[in-house]
Design brief:
mainly alpha; two-stranded parallel ribbon; 37% helix
Length: 81
Amino acid sequence: MKLFHLEDVFITGIVAESVNITRINLPAMFNTPRDLQPCNFKKLLSSHGHTPPDMRRHWMWLKRKKFECTNATEEDVDKTD
């Protein structure tokens, strides 16, 4: 059996196809980095490509800061860091 670096490719691709599971698009899931501004988090389910130091920095920032989101748009989420 081949090693798959991305297990979601195996589960949602190969396995799902072999058992005829219908897949749906989830617009909040990205396979590329997205802008990690706090107001964008409410529109993100997942985003790939962020380094561990970046994720830790953003997590610490979220824990310490208070912020108010008023104008976060889909275009804001579509931007990358």
